[in-house]
């Protein structure tokens, strides 16, 4: 390390002293150390070889490196002061300045050998490194081999004071392509023909692996003979000066001028991504401008970043939508850019042929003023031609014409009135393109859409479900029947006049034969005061909650005189109990089984309605029924209740007058479809339609009047059985499972939970309980022994 | 506008300065992210590329991460040292990628250094995309050797060549005289030139 430091010290000293003193220094310092001396000398040699260019630090920001104003293009007067004018560069005598541009200055020069006029373009950007210089030489070699009638030939390339220059074919009387087209009032067809020459030239370059990279009207000249000459082919690349870099250093207007023709990938991406399709894009812009008289984007007054974004994202207005507009007094120069380019050309011309320029300008002004021809041109830009332009201008280069030749071919197709190859973008493509350009909007929209779908769907389904009845339930006090929707909302409430005024509710699907939809069946013991007879009512929930579609009621004429010589005739029947079951195969859907009971008295109708309200079975029963159960498999309708044919006393019961005057019975009937009898059901089992399948008496009468009756599940223990239960005072209960013949199934006598819960009560009243349970049994109804009216009054 | 409070980065810088490897790693990714974000953000909206210079980029990253808090020169130095290394590695990766493209053409074999494709935005601002990639790689190797021999010289080279700091900036950063920076730079450059010439 010491030696290393030593060497550095000597190296530094050597650098600091004058070159001629170095030897002396080294002699003195390294007198006895040949190795160190050799090392230092070697490093010094490499210091010289490398020079300042080796490992030059990254350039400072561009604004600092803007060249001095003298080399900036400007008013024509400035060019006269150009220090190069009159000088000689490598055998070229510089005569005058033709044009100043972003990349450098174009001079008219005279070549000594062969003697001819040439255009000499001296670029402003220096060659940064040795490797860059090598590449410049290599690239200019290639450019020099580019031979095409529509490409301005490059004769030579070299460097002058470190600045690269190109010597090119000089095109006298050159006009910018756009100006040329306007001045000559070319028709659309002629403009397209002119444009095909450009395509041809560009394609030629592409075939030789050269991308122009800076196609714009300023680089596409037309000579006096109407021949297109593309200039600056590949120059940007060859000089290591990407357009972006060079243009940044120039006036904004000019930068925008270049920017207008730049492809999105040139704006957005790595310059190494640029390929022939970038030129295709620029050609598309040129074609747009040639045919529509304006540029696809107006980025004149926008900041550079915004302009770049516009180019990358904005869809150009369809040529058919912009055509037909007059160019107006501003003529062909809606943008500052073109004015600038115009100036350039004017300068170019002025310096070559001052006397002609006035006439030309006048002609151009005339052309601009008379927009008739141009309108004709523009009127034609639609259909296939529009599609050609828009295909060339596709943001995504994979959708563009893949080469200038493809573009050229389609234009030829168009000119020959043949079908073109470009396909219009599909709606999907356009949608995706839009989405790509507006990721935030798209995401937001999609999120909103999804949210809207969820919310909307929820709301809709809530609304739908809120309108969709789910069930009917009775309030606890039996005063109200509520129609409940799927979201547990109360859709409607029917009221009765008093507690337990509603006997039955059910929501059933009505078969299509009867009109479809849903029926809410509500049986009223008592209706709201003043609302008519208590009845079974069927409401079509889709229509009206107030107007039933049918009403099951017993009319005055239906009532039978009492078979047992009772003196009164019941007038008012309420629906004591009801159920819904599929009793009859003959009618669609289920049937409504209703028991219309006459007030507090004994008689009742057992009736079955179909869902259209038609009575399909009817029979009278003498007694009040309190339970009903349909044994589906056995096709038995099981009831329980009082049997009022005779009091207990008439059946020979002689003990303490029972608190319940009639025997409790459980019986089953086998209803027949269409059987409508105005006669009482017999109490003796038999086979005719008025006899029950079986009938059992529940003993004894001492069971008292506190017993209620219920039938059916969920208490049943066996399939094909019916459970019949009694509920006594103080929660004491009993239940039997009956088989289809009405026989109690063995071991099914149970004491209900209520009894167990009241164990203490059972212990407190052992006698009473024992008595009751021991006496309970099912048996045949005792026969009537006397028809004497009992002494007691009916309640 | 510091993206984080200066506390964590200051701590990280101090810890990394002490040789804490974890802190160094975290610092690296922090600065890398900042550089990357800035580069991407700028390139997205600024059409002409290369408007963003490495110097500006690193300074911007410094401002974002450290803000205008005063941190001691040692931490500052560490920050820029890490940034310089990042810029260097980006340049090298970019060169590798370009060399591979040259060889493999469009069909690129699966690469082990997949990370090199992750920072095209940053690669743009290293400013030397048109270099011969093999030159860049050779230089990188030489620089690594120099680092072994004389770390300070290598640091001067990186700060100057990869970040683009001025001699005064480097002098302040490293706490040495500008003249010393010159000495180091000239010597290092000559040494590297010789190394690249293969002598």
Strand content of chain B: under 5%
Cα separation of the termini of chain A: 130 Å
CATH class membership of the largest domain in chain B: Mainly Alpha
Unreliable stretches covering 5 or more consecutive residues of chain B? 1-7, 44-51, 105-119, 125-129
Low-pLDDT sequence parts of chain A: 60-80, 240-254, 324-376, 752-757, 766-772, 790-795
Gyration radius over CA of chain B: 17 Å
The average pLDDT score of chain A comes to: 73
Which geometry of chain A do the CA atoms define?
elongated
Question: Helicity of chain A, in percent?
Answer: 25-40%
Q: What characterizes the major β-sheet of chain B?
A: none
Tags for this entry?
heterodimer; A: 795 residues; alpha+beta; six-stranded antiparallel sheet; five-stranded mixed sheet; 24 helices; 30 strands; B: Arc Repressor Mutant, subunit A; 2 domains; 9 helices; globular
Question: Would you kindly provide a brief summary of this structure?
Answer:
Chain A is of the alpha+beta class and 795 residues long. Helix content of chain A is 33%, strand content 22%.
Could you characterize the architecture of this molecule?
The complex is a heterodimer of chains A (795) and B (199). Chain A has 795 residues and is an alpha+beta fold. Chain A contains 24 helices and 30 strands. In chain A, the strands form 7 sheets. In chain A, strands 1-2-3-4-6-5 form a 6-stranded antiparallel sheet. Chain A has a 5-stranded mixed sheet with strand order 17-18-19-20-24, with no helix packed on it. In chain A, strands 21-22-23-25-30 form a 5-stranded antiparallel sheet, with no helix packed on it. In chain A, a hairpin with a 4-residue loop joins strand 11 and strand 12 (490-495). The longest helix of chain A is centred in the middle third of the chain and has 28 residues, at 439-466. Chain A is elongated and about 160 Å long. Chain B is mainly α and 199 residues long. Chain B folds into 2 domains: 1-76, no CATH class; 111-199, Arc Repressor Mutant, subunit A, CATH 1.10.10. Helices cover 74% and strands 0% of the residues of chain B. In chain B, helix 6 (133-149) packs across helix 9. Chain B is globular. In chain B, 45% of the residues are buried. Mean pLDDT of chain B is 69; it is low at 1-7, 44-51, 105-119 and 125-129. The chains are: A alpha+beta (795), B mainly alpha (199).
């Amino acid at each position: 390390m010491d030696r290393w430091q030593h060497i550095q010290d000597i190296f530094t000293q050597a650098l600091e002293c004058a070159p001629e003193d170095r030897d002396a220094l080294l002699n003195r310092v390294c007198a006895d150390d040949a190795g160190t001396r050799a090392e230092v000398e070697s490093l010094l040699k490499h210091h010289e070889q490398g020079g300042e260019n080796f490992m030059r630090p990254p350039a400072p920001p561009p604004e600092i490196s803007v060249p001095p104003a003298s080399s900036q293009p400007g008013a024509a007067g400035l060019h006269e002061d150009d220090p190069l004018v009159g000088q000689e560069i490598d055998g070229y005598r510089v005569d005058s300045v033709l044009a100043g541009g972003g990349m450098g200055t174009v001079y008219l020069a005279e070549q000594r050998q062969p003697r001819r006029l040439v255009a000499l373009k001296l670029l402003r950007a220096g060659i940064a490194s040795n490797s860059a210089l090598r590449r410049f030489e290599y690239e200019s070699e290639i450019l020099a081999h580019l031979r095409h009638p529509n490409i301005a030939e490059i004769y030579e390339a070299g460097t002058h004071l470190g600045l690269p220059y190109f010597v090119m074919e000089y095109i006298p009387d050159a006009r910018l392509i756009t100006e040329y087209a306007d001045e000559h009032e070319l028709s659309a067809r002629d403009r397209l023909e002119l444009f095909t020459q450009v395509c041809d030239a560009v394609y030629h370059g592409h075939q030789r692996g050269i991308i122009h990279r800076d196609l714009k009207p300023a680089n596409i000249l037309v000579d006096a003979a109407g021949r297109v000459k593309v200039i600056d082919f590949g120059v940007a690349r060859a000089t290591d000066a990407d357009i972006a870099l060079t243009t940044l250093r120039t006036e904004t207007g000019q930068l925008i001028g270049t920017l207008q023709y730049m492809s999105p990938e040139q704006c957005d991406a790595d310059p190494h991504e640029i390929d022939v399709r970038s030129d295709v894009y620029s050609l598309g812009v040129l074609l747009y401008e040639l045919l529509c008289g304006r540029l696809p984007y107006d980025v004149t007054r926008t900041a550079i970043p915004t302009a770049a974004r516009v180019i990358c994202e904005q869809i150009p207005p369809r040529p058919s939508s912009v055509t037909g507009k007059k160019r107006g007094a501003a003529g062909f120069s809606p943008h500052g850019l073109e004015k600038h380019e115009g100036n350039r050309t004017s300068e170019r011309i002025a310096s070559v042929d001052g006397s002609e320029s006035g006439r030309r300008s006048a002609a151009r002004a005339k052309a601009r003023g008379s927009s008739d021809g141009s309108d004709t041109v523009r009127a034609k830009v639609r259909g296939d031609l529009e599609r050609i332009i828009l295909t060339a201008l596709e943001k995504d280069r994979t959708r563009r014409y893949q080469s200038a030749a493809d573009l050229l071919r389609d234009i030829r197709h168009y000119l020959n009135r043949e079908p073109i190859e470009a396909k219009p973008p599909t709606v999907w493509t356009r949608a995706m393109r839009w989405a790509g350009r507006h990721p935030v909007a798209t995401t937001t929209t999609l999120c909103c859409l999804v949210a809207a779908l969820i919310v909307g769907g929820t709301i809709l389904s809530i609304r739908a479900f809120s309108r969709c009845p789910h069930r009917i339930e009775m309030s606890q006090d039996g005063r109200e029947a509520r129609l409940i929707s799927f979201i547990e909302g109360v859709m409607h409430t029917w009221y009765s006049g008093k507690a337990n005024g509603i006997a039955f509710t059910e929501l059933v699907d009505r078969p299509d034969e009867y009109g479809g939809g849903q029926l809410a069946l509500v049986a009223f013991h008592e209706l709201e005061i003043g609302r008519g007879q208590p009845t079974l009512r069927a409401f079509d929930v889709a229509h009206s909650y107030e107007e039933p579609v049918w009403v099951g009621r017993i009319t005055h004429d239906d009532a039978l005189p009492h078979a047992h010589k009772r003196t009164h005739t019941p007038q008012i029947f309420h629906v004591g109990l009801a159920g819904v079951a599929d009793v009859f195969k003959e009618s669609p859907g289920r049937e409504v089984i209703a028991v219309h009971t006459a007030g507090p008295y004994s008689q009742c109708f057992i009736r079955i309605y179909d869902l259209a309200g038609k009575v399909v079975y009817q029979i009278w029963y003498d007694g009040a029924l309190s339970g009903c159960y349909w044994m589906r498999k056995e096709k038995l309708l099981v009831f329980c209740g009082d049997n009022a044919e005779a009091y207990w006393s008439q059946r020979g019961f002689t003990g303490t007058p029972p608190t319940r005057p009639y025997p409790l019975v459980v019986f089953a009937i086998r209803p027949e479809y269409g059987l409508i009898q105005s006669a009482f059901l017999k109490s003796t089992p038999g086979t005719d339609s008025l006899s029950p399948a079986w009938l059992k008496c529940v003993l004894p009468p001492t069971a008292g009047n506190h017993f209620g009756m219920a039938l059916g599940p969920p208490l049943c223990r066996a399939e094909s059985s019916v459970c019949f239960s009694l509920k006594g005072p103080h929660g004491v209960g009993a239940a039997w499972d009956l088989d289809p013949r009405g026989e109690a199934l063995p071991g099914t006598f149970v004491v209900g939970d209520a009894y167990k819960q009241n164990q203490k009560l059972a212990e407190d009243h052992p006698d009473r309980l024992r008595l009751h349970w021991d006496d309970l049994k099912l048996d045949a109804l005792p026969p009537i022994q006397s028809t004497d009216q009992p002494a007691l009054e009916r309640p | 506008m510091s993206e984080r409070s200066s506390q964590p980065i200051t701590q990280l810088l101090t810890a990394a300065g002490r040789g804490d490897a974890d802190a160094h790693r975290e610092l690296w990714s922090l600065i890398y992210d900042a550089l990357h974000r800035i580069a991407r953000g700028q390139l997205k909206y600024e059409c002409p590329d290369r408007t963003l210079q490495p110097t500006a980029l690193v300074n911007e990253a410094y401002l974002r991460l450290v803000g205008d808090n005063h941190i001691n020169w040692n931490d500052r130095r560490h920050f820029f040292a890490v940034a310089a290394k990042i810029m260097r590695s980006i340049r090298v990766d970019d060169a590798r990628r370009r060399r591979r493209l040259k060889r493999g053409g469009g069909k690129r074999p699966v690469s082990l250094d997949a990370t090199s494709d992750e920072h095209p935005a940053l690669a743009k601002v290293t400013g030397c995309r048109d270099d011969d990639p093999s030159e860049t790689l050779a230089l990188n190797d030489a620089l690594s050797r120099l680092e072994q021999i004389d770390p300070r010289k290598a640091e001067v080279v990186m700060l100057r060549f990869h970040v683009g700091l001025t001699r005064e900036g480097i002098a302040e950063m490293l706490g040495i005289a500008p003249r010393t920076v010159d000495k180091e730079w000239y010597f290092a450059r000559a040494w590297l030139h010789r190394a690249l010439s293969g002598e």
